[in-house]
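FAQ
Q: What does a multi-component entry look like?
A: The components come first, one per line:
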Amino acid sequence: MSYIAIIITYIIVSNFILTQFLGLCPFLGVSKNVESATGMGFAVTFVAAIAALITWAVQNYILIPFNITFLQTVAFILIIASLVQLVEMVVQKVAPPLYKALGIFLPLITVNCGVMGIAVIATRTGYNAMESFVAGIAVGLGFLLAIFIMATIRERLDLEDIPKPFKGLPIAFIVTGLMAMSFMAFDRALLNNLLG
Amino acid sequence: MLKLFNKSILKENPIFVMALGLCPALAVSTTIENALGMGICTLFVLLGANIFVSLLKDFIPSKVRIPAYIVVIATFTAIVEMILQAFSPELYQNLGVFVPLIAVNCIILGSAEAFANKNKVGTSIVYALGQGAGFTLALFMIAFLRELLGTGTVTLLAIGTFDGVIRIPGLASAPIRMFGLAAGAFFVIAFLQAFLNWQTMRKKEK
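Then the predicted structure of the entire assembly, as tokens:
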């Protein structure tokens, strides 16, 4: 699969939030205002890309040669957790303003199933190192796109008169549902048309 | 004990009230069979993780408690994965990537962090059972509606010559396919949640 195809697939065709339901918790939790939503989006992109690359290396150079692939889940989650911790420390040291902006969202990424999801999916589809890395970036950008649209809609919803039982989460779900419906327009046919 | 069980199923229902563990809840709820399978797997991991966390709470230093919990949870997830592969490969296929993702289900980490590390083993077991049952119940409700609207069928247990699938006349021949897809799942959960909110609001007014 070419890199462009991978990018289009994970950003639009099978967007993790809107078609695969991966990473919903932070998507609903952090989409109340645009600024924190974009911060979260970039943090996820960063972690997902590096996590996809490192889990690929661990899978191919440690788990498979030693025949311990049954430890995959445990190994991957440990990698992601320590990676998030590392990223947190590096960002804190190198770019304090960015750390301040992302601060609270960084630890949350550990339990973002999108990151774990792309690590598992990349090994299952058999991507090579570069493809895994690109897929990780694309998944993160897809997440960023979805959470950014969601946050802009939610900021406006605050001013609207919503029926009481729908206040809060239910209306957020309906918005997500409508977004998912519009994303249904992008399917495999789009990929075939674009790339032949 | 019974009170705690009730509370953890209904008042603290992980899906509808606390909005935890949404990813697997929506992804595997296309059919009742998958939903129940996922519910039971999650219940098992939840139970195992809560027992171990409440037993180990005095030994784990609080600074590294989250990674420690994650390792416990991931271990139980790996066990479930192996059991499923051995005894029900079909369900394992259907649930796909969502089996390893049980490890990052926020319900489990949430109940380990918020309940099991402060309580005794007995109460932790009851709480885990309640949360697991609440999760399964919510999954069942979503799956029932999605299967009914999306394919026009209701799957029950197969008994004798009856294959266990009830086809709703009219709906089975022309189902609303959208409910089987992502968008439908979001609408179903939105309306279920709004309905529950409406119920609690009405109760309060009385």
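Q: Is there any commentary attached?
A: Sometimes. For this entry: The CA atoms of residues 55 and 128 of chain B lie 14 Å apart.
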